[in-house]
TrEMBL record, chains A, B:
It comes from Ancylobacter oerskovii. Signal peptide: none annotated. It holds the Pfam family APH. InterPro entries: Aminoglycoside_PTrfase (IPR002575), Homoserine_kinase_II (IPR005280), Kinase-like_dom_sf (IPR011009), Pseudomonas-type_ThrB (IPR050249). This is Homoserine kinase.
Length: 322, 322
């Protein structure tokens, strides 16, 4: 649920007058995205999504995000394509916020991904990694990779055990294992870093779109795979579904091969990915403002996933074909 | 901002399978309507609004609302047209709620109506009253007409003065004037009863749609006119704009004449309409639940309007041409 900023008809009309999109046909706030305000915008030129960037997005990062979407869309990735105004500029200002009009993507997200969905996701993820390989116009450090975890832990450690007994000690232990052992030297590039099912659209079993590039950054490509294994291949009861993992990984590798080093690193990368979402969810969970419009995700889901990864003895446990 | 009920992809797919609307193309919660959950639904057959009726709507009223929209749409009124499923039934059940698919109306609402907007509204309102004249399949008492006001006052009177000094006594005075003197015998029929600017769509200056019929009921037609004079013809500074009132009334009368009795009753009807919205806003204002998703409207806006109506000495003050 996300419309944080009110846009008056006069403001919208003035903003649209700088674009070649014809007359306004409809404009509705939509409940999509947690960080920003999003609106369905229909004009004589078609359907679009208007995004106003709210406080949690650093304006300095916007050229990276928008440049990346332009780059990917130009390479045939089904992602929102930023629309430029008459002066050739995509990023504008509306209601005091940085604002972007992007093309509307059809499709709906799945809540319980099927094996076929996981395979389609693997193909799309590898396609994204390939298409992003020559995006060198700008770069963005992953603020939520290893160096970002301990500060999150510091915010949460005193109250972590209110969420689950022993959680604080478990996270401390994970940090002591992951920080010194985190893989380096693996292939790096642009990663999505948040490619959860709600950021992927399907029509039937066809994957029709990837959205929400606002965590995208430069990092290890296999770390993005690990994030997706976490987000797509666990069942509601907490069990890892090796069939789904196998489908995701096999489909990925048909488009972009994984090196032996990347495969060997998967268990560590999956632990790190689980810890990263456990930590951000935990901090959000412990800091829900009164009257919050958004219910935070349950951190315990990622605690269960982390416990699975701690039990893994080989990359084969994820469904990697040898 | 209104998405109160979560709809899973599986629930949506099962629901849509009972309609002839082709494959799903997009589905997004939208921030429109306060009482119900609304979703943009796009299928191969076009764009629709899916509404789930939440607790504030009495299910027993739904056949009236839906029958009325069908009736009006069949008579060329630009309102949402209920879509029937394969069994010829419009009202269904989705996610445990009564649910309706209706056609999507293009256009956007204005926030500061122009004189031309007020004239277009007057024409549309009279057209609505004419088209509703033969809607006799069912009827609905106006729960928010005179008999409904004192119970609202009883809920609010002890804390009313926290909103504005002297408010409790002023409402008591209004009730003592309006209850015995409320007009009777005027032309009655189906009224919208909530035709505020956010329920009316325009494309440019052309009125393209009327929405949100969930306060519609049988009542005095001129009371609907009074509600619209209140909602459309005051300026943000609280002043009544007689030019807008004149435009609204003149346009209305070109489609449906107002009798001398209706014109004579306008000051009393406008006072009543102002009191009705003052009372409901006051009760909502005093009873905002913690963590509410919806910010209540300011009751003081209608206190100012009520004070204006108390100063009116003749229907001519509203811009009625003699």
């Amino acid at each position: 649920m996300a419309v944080y900023t009110d846009v008056s008809p006069e403001q919208l009309e003035a903003f649209l007058s700088t674009y070649d999109l014809g007359r306004l046909r409809a404009f509705k706030g939509i409940a999509e995205g947690v960080e920003n305000s999003n609106f369905l915008l229909q004009t004589e030129a078609g359907s679009f999504i208007l995004t106003l960037y709210e406080k949690r997005v650093n304006p300095a990062d916007l050229p990276f995000f928008i440049g990346l979407m332009q780059h990917l869309a130009a390479r045939g990735i089904d992602c929102p394509q930023p629309v430029k105004n008459r002066e050739g500029v995509a990023l504008g200002t509306l209601a005091g916020r940085p604002a972007l009009i992007a093309t509307f993507l059809y499709g709906t997200s799945v809540r319980r991904p099927s094996v076929a969905n996981c395979a389609a996701l693997g193909t799309a993820l590898a396609g994204l990694h390939r298409a992003g390989a020559d995006f060198t116009a700008s770069s963005r450090v992953n603020a939520l990779s290893v160096p970002g975890w301990r500060p999150l832990y510091e915010q949460a450690k005193d109250r972590a055990d209110t969420v689950a007994p022993g959680l604080s000690a478990l996270i401390a232990d994970e940090l002591s294992v992951l920080e010194p052992a985190w893989p380096s030297g693996l292939p790096a590039g642009v990663i999505h870093a948040d490619l959860f099912p709600d950021n992927v659209f399907f029509t039937g079993e066809e994957l029709t779109g990837l959205i929400d590039f606002y965590f995208a950054c430069n990092d290890l490509l296999a770390y993005d795979v690990a994030i997706c294994l976490n987000a797509w291949c666990f069942e509601p009861d907490g069990a890892y579904n090796q069939t789904k993992g196998r489908a995701l990984l096999a489909a990925y590798r048909t488009v972009r091969p994984l090196s032996d080093q990347e495969i060997a690193a998967l268990p560590m990368l999956c632990r790190g990915a689980a810890l990263r979402f456990l930590l951000t969810r935990l901090v959000d969970w412990l800091n829900v403002p009164p009257g919050a419009l958004v219910r935070p995700h349950d951190p315990k889901e990622y605690l269960r996933k982390l416990r699975f990864h701690r039990s893994v003895t080989s990359p084969a446990d994820y469904g990697v074909a040898s």
